[in-house]
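Dear Dr. H.,

I hope your travels went smoothly. While you were away I took the liberty of generating a structure for the chain from your last submission, since the lab meeting agenda had it listed for discussion. I wanted you to have the full record in hand beforehand rather than looking at slides cold. The sequence, exactly as received, is reproduced here:
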Amino acid sequence: MLKYCLKQPFVLLLLLLAAVIGGIYAYGRLPVDLFPNMNYPLINVITHYPGGSGKDVETLVTRPIETQMSTLQNVRRISSTSQQGLSIVTVEFEWGETGKDARQLAAQALSVATGSLPAGVRPVLENLGSTLLQIAEYGVIYNRQKSRPGELRSYLETKLANFLKTVNGVNRVEVVGGEERSLVINPDNNKLRQNNLSYQDIADKVAANNLQLLAGYYSAYHQDRAVTGKGMIRGLADLQNVALNDKPLFLKNIASVHVGALPQRYAVYINGKPGIALLIYKNPHANTMQVSRGVAAALKTIEPSLPAGARIVNIYDQAKVIGDAVSSLKDDIIIGIVLVAIMMILFLGSLGTSLLVALSVPVIAIVTLIFMDILGMSLNMITLGAMAVAVGMVVDDSIIIIENIIRHRELGKGAFAAARDGTREIAAADASGTLTTVASFIPFLFLGGLAGRFAGPFGITISIMLLLSLVISLSIVPALMARQKRYKFKEPLAMPLVSAVVAVNHRLLDTFLRHRKTVIFGSLLLFIASSTILFYLPVSFVPKIDEGSILFEYTMPSGTSLQESNKIGHRIEEIALQNPQVTEVSRRTGSEEGTFQVEPVNKGEMVFKLKPANERKISIFRVMKELEKETDKIPGIITIYHQVTAEKLDESMSGLPTLFGLTVYGGNGRKLQEIANEIEKTAAHIPGIEAVVNNSKYKVPQLLIVPNREALARYGINARDLLNEARYYIGGKVISRIIKNQRVIPIFLRAKNGSRMDLQKIRSIPIKTALGYVPLSRLAETKIYAGAAQIEHINLQRVVTLPMQVGGSIPQITKTLRQKITALHLPKGYFVLFGGDYQNLIKMAKSFAVYAVIGALLIYMIISLQLGNALHPLAILLGLPLPFAGAFIAMGITHAELNLSFLIGLITLLGVAVNNGIVLVDYINRYRKDGLERLEAIEKAARARTRPILLTVLTAVVALFPIALGIGIGSKMQQSLAICVIGGLLANIFFTLNVLPVIYSILDEKFGRA
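The corresponding predicted structure, in token form, is as follows:
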């Protein structure tokens, strides 16, 4: 094969050109996204139960749903939160299930559970994977004097949303905010009593006059014809003329019947003004960039037709984040290629040869796109990051081949013979080095969970590039080198550095070989000492990036009204808009019933859009600190700062939405609260714990109506009619719906000013009975009591979660807190589990450790096959702690973040660090076969491999340097990986040239040559 390549370079170049054209074509087909397709098997079941207390919601709604969900197969975890009027059950399936299958299974279980739920309760299923498909948020600002909120919302739901759905790739558009138009009935209570009517009578009459029935079939002219009765209410006039008795008495005679809006338990504001939010979701495999551009163009087209006084502003656009990330990674790749070319010229002294190697990098990257397209991958921060990381690695194969060919030319061989013999001599070692690196990534394919969704595409992309680089180095590179007449290049500019390293290393290696035990002990001590650095570094699961938008959440004490929440919301809006870095502010307080928004009225969610990163002098994290300093001055609220996409990824972990915290498990709610309070007090005195969030201690004031059974029997009324009548007076209720202009419009019945009733007025509500009208107080006990703000379950067991804000060494905090909790002597059946991003990272690190061992075994097998013995590969693997020590020290010097990227970097280092060692050991064995003694062969091999080792390591380091700086969004995602690998590779120079020979000599001396 090599002989054919050397003789037919033109054919190889044509094949390469065809592959490049194919790669360019694949580039146009690949979807562009922020992350790989997550396909989360995580389902939320959201159920609104208006008026229900937390305990009622737990008993009547949450338990039936989670009990039925627990019967499903492959369910890993079920968690739930029950609070006033709202139940959220989260079902986490094993990662083998797809999001689509998980939703189908959950829907089947929910259909069974629905029969056990209170009448009228309709759960909503949300696939958490779909939340990551939200690619944009727009706000519609309107002027109440020029635009009616109800009419504007109706326009947005019918015309604008439907228009946006025509954009290719748009899955759905959620319209949140404004007013939901309805037909409102406000009876006159005096007229009701005069005509002996109740609210329930009105509801029954409206329902009886708003229906469509199939009356059967009749035969005519040899045909069966359906008979349909249409008794639907067609609009306001029909509703006003509903007859309530046979006088006749019409609804309009005893009530105000008008077009209005449903009561709002939510508010939406844009830049401090009333607004409506548009949430745009794409199809799973659609190109985010194309969808976003299509949506922006569609909105620009339709904006002039909006009702007077309304305008559209962009709040969040994922395409902008993706564009910045892709741009920064492309810049990193280009800068990396340029730096590699400069390094090649410095070390080889040949412009032509250096350009040959440098140009192979973009060619490999373009051809890689073909395989990514075949595998159904996308261009995202992970795959592009892998390409950027691979820039310095893919040139190694070519450098090794070129170096050896030049060495054979220096022996006096012709160009063709030198290319042939030089390639054959080193091909096995070269291939072995590449395959060992690829082998280190193979376990990524079997890694589950969120980490697998990141690490898998990274490993696949970088492996494809490495294999392509191997193919090019063994075919095209020798073919072109065989036609290079001149081989005596100018003395490389880096030659003095190489000579100095060779001289210093010769003396150092001689010393090390005479003090082998000290070297081994010192290396081990260095590894252990450097490992302790990791305990003092910042921790995060997914690397933090600058998305250009801040997601801010605030929580007020349970029971706070919407009006009070709005006051605080306006104050926070003012703080944000006064910050010079903030351009737009969107706020949603509370949530609409029947939507995926699941916040009570005491909670608000805000998005702060910032200036573009190139127009800001400070990072998004600095802006967060500035805003946090101001919002911390507001008493009585709990605040959390996220970024939009990062927050959705945190949700996927199905645990605590913080870095650190714990969960208390037990059976009795009151006892759980007592334990949580004790832990909160204990934690407050532990150094490093800055704050503890204990929601269990908050209570919600609730009105309880308990019917008196004897009184009900005496007055001839049942509990259902009593409570329904009270509900119509206090909160109101949707009693029916009509369809007009293809829109469903609810009919809402409530007493005038019902929501502003105090306890005395509630007790005086007149209830129609068989003996006439009597006040509610005669039929039921009414009282205010304090109920639980929220009740949490994990796997059907009651729990209390305690998120904590920490500022010290988390391992030390965990150790101290665990000791303090043990001293509390928790009752039998109660226990504590630590959680948060830190614990997730620890679990992930353990999984990576297992896969690293598997990778090391694969590497050992490959090296053993290449070297032809089972002993010398151990020398290479046993020295790996030293490159890892270099990685740990580099992380400590830069104070880099420990995250998923860092763990991937360690696995990458595992595969890369052995490459030069393989070639060095191969050289030592070759020299020994030629008759040299062991020490002489070691010293000669070290001198021969110094320049190639320096070149391969330094090219990889300079290529990673732009990523290590973490200037762009894409770079930031892989920054910890780059720093880890750079530190490891620099240490690997020292290891390969000095420590590896020591380990080799010890093993060879003890166990002999295999």
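Two observations you may find useful: The radius of gyration is 35 Å. The first helix runs from residue 2 to 7.

With kind regards,
E. W.
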